[in-house]
């Protein structure tokens, strides 16, 4: 009977695990020693800050300092000039007169032909076509100070058209004639005389 009771006290059941009144002296001493060790370990961990987090903070501060130095030491870059403001030298290109055939749906247009000072709700096909050709630098119209900005100017383009359409009318075989920019090389106007041995050839006339 006594041996059975000693075995029961040394190994308490899970339900009586927190009931220290049922524990033996040896078991209580072991439990107190374990709790003291856990308390010392916990205090040691809380007293020492985690080094990885501190190292990461230092790294971030270092990179921010380097970035600030680069911003202050780097020269101020000049703003790039817009492509739309660049000067286009039309004299460097040849031109050719072509027949341009195109199609369009006229529901949102006020016909083909453009008339000055005729304000309409929808644009004409000529207005949209002139804007596209002028923006692409395919035509080189002669400047006309009497026209408004963005107003179609066909002067110098040898522009002609065959037929026209009314408001809302579509076309699938409209043809115009116009002079446009070409990839053909420019013809040399003046052929310079090539030098011979670095000097111009001089012909001496002998008199009899």
Describe the overall structure.
It is a single chain. This protein has 208 residues and is an alpha+beta fold. Helices cover 32% and strands 12% of the residues. It has helices at 2-10, 25-47, 51-73, 125-135; strands at residues 94-104, 160-161, 171-182. The chain has a three-stranded antiparallel beta sheet with strand order 1-3-2, with no helix packed on it. The chain is elongated, with a radius of gyration of 47 Å. It starts with a helix and ends in a 26-residue tail after the last strand. 7% of the residues are buried. Residues 1-16 and 199-208 have low confidence and may be disordered.
Question: What sequence of helices (H) and strands (E) makes up the elements?
Answer: HHHEHEE
Structural class, by secondary structure, is alpha+beta
Question: How large a portion of the residues is in β-strands, by DSSP E?
Answer: 5-15%
Count of separate DSSP helical elements: 4
Q: Overall pLDDT, averaged?
A: 77
Query: What is the radius of gyration computed over CA atoms, rounded to a whole number of angstroms?
Result: 47 Å
Stretches where pLDDT is under 50 for at least 5 consecutive residues are 1-16, 199-208
Task: State the major sheet.
Answer: 3 strands, antiparallel
Which strands sit side by side, in order, in the main sheet?
1-3-2
The 3D shape can be described as elongated
Could you state the oligomeric state of the chains shown? Answer: single chain
- Quote the distance from N terminus to C terminus: 163 Å
Give the fraction of residues assigned to helices.
Answer: 25-40%
Number of strands: 3
């Amino acid at each position: 009977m006594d041996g059975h009771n000693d075995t029961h006290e040394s190994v308490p059941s899970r339900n009586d695990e927190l009931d220290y009144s049922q524990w033996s002296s040896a078991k209580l001493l072991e439990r107190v020693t374990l709790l003291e060790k856990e308390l010392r370990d916990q205090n040691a961990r809380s007293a020492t800050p985690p080094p990885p987090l501190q190292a990461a903070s230092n790294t971030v501060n270092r990179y921010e300092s380097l970035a600030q130095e680069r911003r202050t030491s780097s020269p101020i870059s000049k703003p790039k000039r817009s492509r739309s403001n660049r000067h286009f030298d039309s004299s460097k290109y040849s031109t050719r007169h072509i027949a341009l055939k195109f199609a369009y749906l006229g529901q949102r247009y006020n016909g083909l032909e453009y008339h000055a000072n005729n304000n309409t709700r929808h644009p004409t096909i000529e207005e949209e076509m002139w804007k596209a050709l002028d923006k692409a630098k395919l035509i080189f119209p002669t400047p006309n100070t009497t026209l408004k900005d963005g107003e179609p100017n066909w002067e110098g383009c040898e522009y002609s058209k065959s037929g026209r359409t009314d408001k809302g009318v579509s076309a699938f075989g409209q043809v115009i004639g116009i002079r446009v920019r070409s990839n053909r090389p420019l013809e040399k106007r003046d052929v310079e005389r090539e030098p011979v041995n670095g000097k111009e050839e001089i012909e001496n006339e002998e008199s009899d």
